[in-house]
Design a protein that fits this description.
Bound molecules: alpha-D-glucopyranose
CATH superfamily of the largest domain: Glycoside hydrolase, family 3, N-terminal domain
Helix content: 25-40%
Strand content: 15-25%
Number of domains: 3
Number of strands: 26
CATH topology of the largest domain: TIM Barrel
Oligomer: single chain
Length: about 750
Amino acid sequence: MRVFFSIALLFLSLNIYGQKETISQRVDTLLSQMTLDEKIGQINQFSGNWEQTGPKAVTPQILDEIAQGRVGSLLNVHGAATTRSLQQYAMKSRLKIPLLFAQDVIHGYKTTFPIPLAEAASWDIKAIEKSARVAAAEASSAGIHWTFAPMVDICRDPRWGRVMEGAGEDTYLGSIIGAARVRGFQGNGIGSTDALIACAKHFAGYGASMAGRDYNTTDISDRTLWEVYLPPFESVVKEGVGSFMTAFNDLNGVPATGNKYLLTEVLRKKWGFTGMVVSDWGAIGELIPHGFAKDGKEAACKALLAGCEIDMESHLYKNNLKQLVLDGEIDEKVIVEAVRHILYKKFELGLFEDPYKFSDEKREKETLGNAANKAFAREIAAKSIVLLKNNNEILPLTKKYKKISLIGPLMKSKADMRGNWSIVRWGDSDIVSPYEGIQKRAPKGAELIYSKGCEISTNDRSGFTQAIEVAKNSDVVIMAMGESWNMTGEAKSRTDISLPGIQEELIKEIVATGKPVVVLLMAGRPMTFEWTAANAGSILYTWWLGNEAGNAIADVLYGDYNPAARLPITIPRSVGQIPLFYNNKNTGRPLIDENNVSYVSAYIDSPNTPLYSFGYGLSYTRFEYSDLETSNTKIGKKDTLTVKCKVKNIGKYDGEEVVQLYLRDISASVTRPVKELKGFDKIFIKAGETKEVEFKIGKELLAFYDINMKRTVECGMFELMIGQASDKIVLREMLEVIKL
Ligand code: GLC
């Protein structure tokens, strides 16, 4: 039957000359057959109920709309069987246009990986790409065609809960990671049954939500918009991302979802994007409370004319577009263009040849959570753990630590390890808690003693006494402290980002026992923990590491993996310093000497410096840099400079180092940051060995938006810096760009 179906469709897809029609031609042919209702139907996206399966995954009304060909895509329905059953309803419609199934596959589908911010800390671009690849293989085996990821919003404000979904504060790193995630999700191309259509979100400026309060307004200068927030979106367009999602926020007075400058001038005309544009959930309707539309009809009109093509869950396109066309307020051609983009993707996926090609229960069973995926989840989780401190080399743990006390509200937690934006429906049985991981890995003869000590965010000290006793009777203490999984994420902004509850008081009591204390800090955001940073022996920032959290933590604690992660975002001393980021401006009164803060850009009650800087992270070994060489100290605007240096592993463990290249434009037509990341190389070096690292600096790294907002390279002096972190510069060289 299927063979007959395919042959019949093959003939249908040949044009009158017997040539295979292009997808565009097939789209045009189909559009010419569609009614206005059917066209509007294609740009409606409704949510199902992920707790339900089969046709019950959506309401009877939506089922009926699907059968009438008035739904283009669904989100939050999943599973090969369920998507097949819903697709069967679409096949009842007059033109049998298949549905697209979308899901927020943000950091894994069945196998949950570290949250995106944690993976960004790995600075391991291949591993980050592979994480998205595995997520795509699992989700597409469960009938999903389209993921609402990668989130590429740059964030300089850890009060904002959605910081966990992105790649941190840096535009250069965020652009590279965003592109890697698109490559991972889309794999061998849209239409492969192990790939997903990726979605760049949230376009644009959402990460600059004022005061770190989610959904708040954003006020971004043109220069900052183009230097900081837009480049990661342009980077993923160049990588071929299949779709974009509009942001909730208003950008400089114009909500992103109704922003013609963003959605048409920039995205379509300047960047040449040809994929789909979907609104965020209900964002078209939110144009009314924004004060940008007086009612649903105006909101629908403004959003569509701006370039927001698919309406996620506001229902305003369904309820208003036909009348807007009949009233002549919208030309049907605008709707046709929107429908064209979604139909193109459906043809590209091969859904017209086989609407059920992604709904294959056998492949689903073989793919979901398989052993290889789990093993990789453990590997990338270990790569995401940042070693912030390791006094007296407490770590890696050795056999000398016979009695190990395991303390803290997160030590036995499973659900928290997944972090936010995971697919929660699988339950916790697959998740390895820190306790389980350490228990499995601890050497024979080691005795583990557990005491919770306190809850995550209550003020109940009743568990302190037992925890202190347990600590006193051990050789080393490991504490698992931090937020709960849902204290960071969408609509999870915090005004106080310190360790919740009385956790830091418990740490103080345990440190007071005089035992060596290792603190594992777990959260979806940078937290502030100044006392702990000064007094704990060792600190590992583990973020949320996903299903294999406990195993990865144990691998690092016992040195089976030598930690090599580096912070993708600044950790401030206090929330009062925010926004605090490494590539700041020098100002006219820079703080030179921390001991003399009079009449310079400084605080009278705090240093300017962060607790831990962008790019910072330690290893169990140490590295020494030398022999900085540049191919020239003067280069023309169009030349490329070669920069080399040597890195030696001078410790006793093999390990990885992230060699970071920063540039500073000393003087230009506008003020420039004191440094900007312009390259990095993560290299493995055996103990005692030396490796050479090479960077190329061309005009694309020297260019910036000048006084006229023109991207240009200006002549003048640059400082070239090689660093182990943004505030650990180990080699420097001056470079002059000259007019040749
Ligand atoms: C949410 C998020 C967006 C997500 C969408 C669908 O509100 O803002 O990132 O993709 O709704 O779940």
